[in-house]
């Protein structure tokens, strides 16, 4: 049996009794990072006398997925196997999704345990979501793809949840403030840990707050929903006024006008 086991996102006490019981029954742990996984097992054994005795730790991440699945033996899942991501729910911004698909394709029995999840925690803590929201995970790091992703998040009819690193959190909020300074944003860092911090304000005010804050730690933000129900409500003139590269503007204009991207780009660069 293959078990997908959520791990604490900060506070070790968030591990469930069921997760500990299942881990006791597993011989093998497939891990996003074997060092993190081994450290967690050691802490659970020390803190809670968990008596977990996994004999083999195998890495599975975005760089070794092909080799991992190619080298799997037919009887690998005849034993109890745990999959554990570094923190939180497996399969959410995580290589575990490829293992789920493999199990489905090869008729392997699997179970997903419930547990810690940073996205849901952020949604509830934000007070910005009545029911529906959109999870965007980590945005592209740089360039036009990132600019487009930020614009997309601002155009959604539902609150958007984004994960971000301490190196890029201020830049992300600044980019939002440049486009929509009054858009309400909730941000949380180091969720469930000793130095958990929450912030909620307009984008322009949040920039000033974060400029003075300690940004170390992992972040999640929730962007309030757009007051425009669809991308089509955004006018061509509004896009032309945005501080974006011509290629990015051309793609956005293509979405609402249907005109050829190259033709739009040529017109923008001639202006």
Automatic annotation (TrEMBL):
Q: Which UniProt keywords apply?
A: Cytoplasm, Methyltransferase, rRNA processing, S-adenosyl-L-methionine, Transferase
| Top EC class, one word | transferase
- Molecular function via GO: rRNA (cytosine-2'-O-)-methyltransferase activity
Q: Please list the residue ranges annotated as the Tetrapyrrole methylase domain.
A: 1-205
Q: Please tell me whether the keyword S-adenosyl-L-methionine is annotated for this protein.
A: yes
Return any one Pfam family short name.
Answer: TP_methylase
The entry's cellular-component GO terms read: cytoplasm
| EC numbers, comma separated | 2.1.1.198
- Localization annotation: Cytoplasm
Keyword S-adenosyl-L-methionine in annotation: yes
Q: Which InterPro entries does its entry note?
A: 4pyrrol_Mease (IPR000878), 4pyrrol_Methylase_sf (IPR035996), 4pyrrole_Mease_sub1 (IPR014777), 4pyrrole_Mease_sub2 (IPR014776), rRNA_ssu_MeTfrase_I (IPR008189), SAM_MeTrfase_RsmI_CS (IPR018063)
Gene3D superfamilies recorded = Cobalt-precorrin-4 Transmethylase, Domain 1, Methyltransferase, Cobalt-precorrin-4 Transmethylase, Domain 2
Q: Which domain of life is it from?
A: Bacteria
Its UniProt entry gives the catalysed reaction(s) as: cytidine(1402) in 16S rRNA + S-adenosyl-L-methionine = 2'-O-methylcytidine(1402) in 16S rRNA + S-adenosyl-L-homocysteine + H(+)
Task: Please give the function described in this protein's UniProt entry.
Answer: Catalyzes the 2'-O-methylation of the ribose of cytidine 1402 (C1402) in 16S rRNA.
Write down the NCBIfam families for this protein, in alphabetical order: 16S rRNA (cytidine(1402)-2'-O)-methyltransferase
Entry-linked PANTHER family: RIBOSOMAL RNA SMALL SUBUNIT METHYLTRANSFERASE I
Family (UniProt):
Belongs to the methyltransferase superfamily. RsmI family.
The protein depicted here goes by the name Ribosomal RNA small subunit methyltransferase I
* Organism name: Campylobacter concisus
């Amino acid at each position: 049996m293959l078990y997908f086991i959520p791990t604490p996102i900060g506070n070790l006490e968030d591990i469930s009794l069921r997760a500990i019981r299942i881990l006791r029954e597993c011989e093998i742990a497939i891990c996003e990072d074997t060092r993190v996984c081994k450290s967690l097992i050691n802490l659970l054994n020390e803190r809670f006398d968990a008596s977990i005795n996994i004999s083999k730790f195998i890495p599975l991440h975005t760089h070794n997925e092909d080799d991992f699945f190619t080298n799997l033996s037919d009887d690998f899942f005849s034993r109890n196997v745990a999959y554990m991501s570094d923190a939180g729910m497996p399969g959410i911004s995580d290589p575990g999704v490829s293992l789920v698909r493999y199990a489905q394709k090869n008729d392997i029995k699997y179970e997903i345990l419930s547990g810690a999840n940073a996205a849901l925690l952020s949604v509830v803590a934000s007070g910005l979501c009545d029911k529906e929201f959109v999870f965007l995970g980590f945005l592209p790091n740089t360039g036009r793809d990132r600019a487009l992703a930020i614009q997309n998040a601002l155009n959604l009819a539902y609150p958007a949840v984004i994960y971000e690193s301490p190196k890029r959190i201020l830049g992300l909020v600044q980019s939002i403030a440049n486009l929509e300074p009054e858009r309400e944003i909730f941000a949380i860092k180091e969720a469930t840990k000793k130095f958990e911090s929450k912030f909620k304000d307009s984008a322009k005010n949040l920039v000033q707050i974060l400029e003075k804050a300690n940004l170390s730690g992992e972040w999640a933000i929730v962007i309030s929903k757009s007051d425009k129900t669809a991308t089509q409500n955004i006018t061509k003139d509004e896009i032309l006024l945005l501080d974006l590269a011509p290629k990015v503007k051309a793609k956005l204009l293509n979405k609402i006008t249907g005109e050829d991207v190259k033709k739009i780009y040529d017109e923008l660069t001639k202006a």
